Amino acid sequence: MIKHPDQRVGVFVDVQNMYYSAKNLYDRHVNFASILKEAVAGRKLIRATAYTIKAQLPEENNFFEALKLQGFEIKSKELQVFPGGVKKGDWDVGIAVDAIKLSRQLDVVVLVTGDGDYLPLVEFLQYHGLLVEIIAFKKTASSKLTERADDYIDLSLNTRRFLMGHSARNRNRQ
Question: Is the separation of the CB atoms in 103 and 125 below 8 Å?
């Protein structure tokens, strides 16, 4: 896909999806600053939003501040805990609504997620003339989502750039 400097880009990051993918696959943290740079790719950034869940953990405020300093607008909501202990926290509908609301000011929507629930959003945006790019880890990304996208960046191909820290497994070996 051709990327040019006049394209107006919106970046929508499903933080929970990326966090748990990196943790489960690599036992590491995501480098969101590097992902944002890759998503923008020298084009005009209109908005970058990171969608987060507040779980009342002590370190989360520092994490949210770091995201702001990297250029993200933060949208947060509380983790829902249901009777019986089931926990839920997702932004699927919120991300979809925001992408649609902003779509008239964009040429490209970059979804940083591998969640297949976004397939109808991708199709809707493409129908309305936008390019849609997906950034995710291949092993945790929906193949239908990545195939449908106009461009797909597999974070697994450059873990040195897109992940931070060392896994506990690697630290124990040293």
Answer: yes
Concatenate the DSSP letters of all residues of 39-72 into one string: HHTTSEEEEEEEEEEE---TTHHHHHHHHHHTT-
Angstrom distance (rounded) from CA 130 to CA 107:
5
Name 49's bridge partners.
12, 73
Concatenated DSSP letters of 68-91? HHTT-EEEEEEPEE-TTS-EE---
Instruction: Pull the structure tokens for residue 6.
Output: 């006049």
> Would you say 9 and 108 are in contact if contact means Cβ atoms under 8 Å apart?
yes
CA 35, CA 19: separation in Å to the nearest integer? 13
pLDDT tens per residue, range 15-55:
999 999 999 999 999 999 999 999 999 999 999 999 998 87
pTM value? 0.90
Please, what is the end-to-end C-alpha distance for the chain in angstroms? 42
Q: Which CATH number fits domain 11-173: 3.20.20.70, 3.90.190.10, 3.40.50.1010, 1.10.10.10?
A: 3.40.50.1010
Distance CA 89, CA 131 (A): 28
